[in-house]
UniProtKB/TrEMBL annotation:
This is 3-isopropylmalate dehydratase. SUPFAM superfamilies: Cgl1923-like. It comes from the Archaea. Residues 227-248 are annotated as: Disordered. InterPro entries: Proteasome_assmbl_chaperone_2 (IPR019151), PSMG2_sf (IPR038389). PANTHER family: 3-ISOPROPYLMALATE DEHYDRATASE, 3-ISOPROPYLMALATE DEHYDRATASE-RELATED. The lineage of its organism: Archaea, Methanobacteriati, Methanobacteriota, Stenosarchaea group, Halobacteria.
Length: 248
């Protein structure tokens, strides 16, 4: 059974229709890199812990801090009316569905607008990664408002992010998805930069500094490579967008 344990109750009253950025691990680790960067750059507060039967029973600790934490957490920034869902482990799609059902009443209470992030594999190219938006219910108009492009081909989103989006469609929850071309084999900080600057910034109206993300791209890629290999070994746990053509 999934449950949410709020650690900072006073922050709840300070949030007004916040935007939630989902950063579950997926192809290119785009969502995770982007989410981790946003948490770091705004020094976001550890707001809540998320417990779910399908999440591995592990405890994590951070550099320079001996405190143990569960691997799936929510961070909050009241000043920017922002939430980030962060995970340090792969999550199975069935666990993500349970997680979505757990979070849905909380989304309703706080009037949360979830923005889900996914990479879509692309061939090596010197061109910047392309980005487009998808969504459901009343959220769709927000993509037009900020001129985020539409998909150029039919496709689907799989893995835990796909499960979260599927639940939003079924439940009537307004939700948005940002899909960016990314390296299918290695962590892709450049794709994460694109999803921040061309997707998250326009949707939230928040300027997110990315100089550090660019300067440390090689370091980030190296640090995340072991995690990416774990994701490749558990492909069904990896969020990714795929062209529908391969299934037709």
């Amino acid at each position: 059974m999934a449950r949410l344990s709020v650690l900072e109750d006073e922050l709840t009253d300070q949030l007004e229709s916040p935007t939630l950025i989902e950063g579950l691990p997926g192809v290119g680790l785009v969502g995770k890199i982007a989410a981790d960067h946003i948490v770091d750059v705004f020094d976001m507060v550890h707001y809540a812990d998320v417990y779910c039967d399908g999440v591995p029973d592990v405890a994590v600790y951070m550099e320079g801090d001996p405190t143990l934490h569960p691997p799936v957490r929510l961070y909050a920034d009241a000043e920017h009316d922002l939430l980030v869902l962060q995970s340090d482990v792969p999550i199975r799609p069935d666990a993500a569905t349970e997680l979505a059902v757990c979070l849905e009443p909380w989304f309703d209470d706080l009037d949360v607008m979830p923005v889900f992030l996914s990479g879509i594999a692309r061939e090596k190219s010197d061109a910047p990664p392309a980005l487009y938006g998808v969504g459901c219910h009343d959220a769709l108009s927000r993509l037009d408002d900020v001129d985020i492009g539409k998909p150029t081909e039919s496709g689907l989103v799989s893995g835990p992010t796909g499960a979260l989006l599927s639940n939003a469609v079924k439940s009537g929850l307004p939700a948005l998805g940002l899909i960016v071309e990314s390296d299918p084999q290695f962590p892709d900080p450049e794709a994460a930069r694109i999803i921040i600057k061309k997707g998250i910034e326009p949707l939230t109206g928040i300027e997110v500094p990315v100089d550090d993300l660019i300067d440390r791209a090689a370091e980030i890629r190296q640090a995340k490579e072991q995690f990416a290999r774990q994701m490749q070994q558990a492909d069904e746990e990896s969020s990714q967008a795929r062209p529908l053509g391969m299934y037709q």
